[in-house]
Amino acid sequence: MTVTIYHNPKCSTSRTTLQLIRDAGVEPRVVEYLKTPPSRAELAALAATRGLSVRDLLRTKEPLAKEMALATAPDEAILDAIAAHPILLNRPIVTSGKGGRATRPPETVKDLL
């Protein structure tokens, strides 16, 4: 089973989630999305993962999300915004053969392993 984590190494929740995955004996595919941002098409495919939605991908606490009024924006506008500004991607997002989710709190990743 392939596990992918969209990871920000500066985020303690993301680091904890990555460690929980590794502690379970899984070496995930790590996407440092600020260094290698996913394309809009990749974001749309990610949102189509069972258990995820476009809104799950949005980091609503990010000041830019408020500036851009994304809380009430349609899905297409959210995808455009995240593609243009990867800092808006919620973290961490984890996918596996069991689906996907924004893993806050980190322990929720166990359902995907």
TrEMBL record:
UniProt-listed SUPFAM superfamilies: Thioredoxin-like (SSF52833)
Region named Disordered: 94-113
EC number: 1.20.4.1
GO molecular function, one term: arsenate reductase (glutaredoxin) activity
InterPro entries assigned to the protein according to its UniProt record, in alphabetical order: Arsenate_reductase, Arsenate_reductase-like, Thioredoxin-like_sf
CDD domains: ArsC_ArsC
Keyword terms of this UniProt record: Arsenical resistance, Oxidoreductase
Reaction equation(s) it catalyzes: [glutaredoxin]-dithiol + arsenate + glutathione + H(+) = glutathionyl-S-S-[glutaredoxin] + arsenite + H2O
A GO BP annotation: response to arsenic-containing substance
Similarity comment: family membership: Belongs to the ArsC family.
UniProt-recorded name of the protein: Arsenate reductase
Gene giving rise to this polypeptide: arsC
